[in-house]
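Q: I'm writing up a methods section and want to include an example of the input and output format. Could you take the sequence below and give the corresponding predicted structure tokens, formatted cleanly so I can copy it straight into the document?
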Amino acid sequence: MSSIRKRLTYANVMSTIAVFFVLAGATAYAAHHLGRRSVGAKQLKVNAVTTAKLKRNAVSRAKIKSGAVDTTKIADGTVTGADINLPATPFSRVILRMRGNSTLAVSAAAFQIYPLSPSTYVQAPEEVDSYAGALDLTFPAACTVPRSAIAYVAVDPANPLKPTLSDVVGVGQAEDTVGGDLSKRIEIGPYPGAGGRFEPGVAKTHSVFLVVEGKCKAGSGITATSGAVDVIGTR
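A: Here is the clean output for your methods example:
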């Protein structure tokens, strides 16, 4: 203890205190000035910030620059119909696909209904609906040329086999003058002079019919093998 007291001179004590204040002052200065400075682009090494360094959900909408996210930044197939505000976006889309795969013997004596499923649908308010379709046919060699078939789409007819002009929304025809066994497709488009169904004020249920008739110069045997009608809604 006596040896320690001999070394505790005035000069030693004052120098120790001075060193303490210097260190304390430097620490306070560094904390004060470095705490006010932020890390800017110049302080970041290229590629230093990786996805692993970003906290989940840390990048908010406010942090994204306007125009920074374009089509090249969006993965294919990630934007679906559920992501679109339908009432606020004018566009056309297929709202219903009606299909049939039964085999129907097509008569030359009268029109026949080709069955589709579903056969009814609901038109949404403020929507304009149009219709397109197709019907696949087989002409046998026994059905001699010239031979043909006609198909139409009718919406809400009182009698689908005897529709009025206002009932028909699509029509198509197939003809053949070659003969032999042949497969043909009738492409059904808008009927001249008739349109689709204009937008209703409220939702409206519609019944849709695909109707066909075929003719041979002689013989018979035309069959319809598959049919389709698409309802296209425009808002």
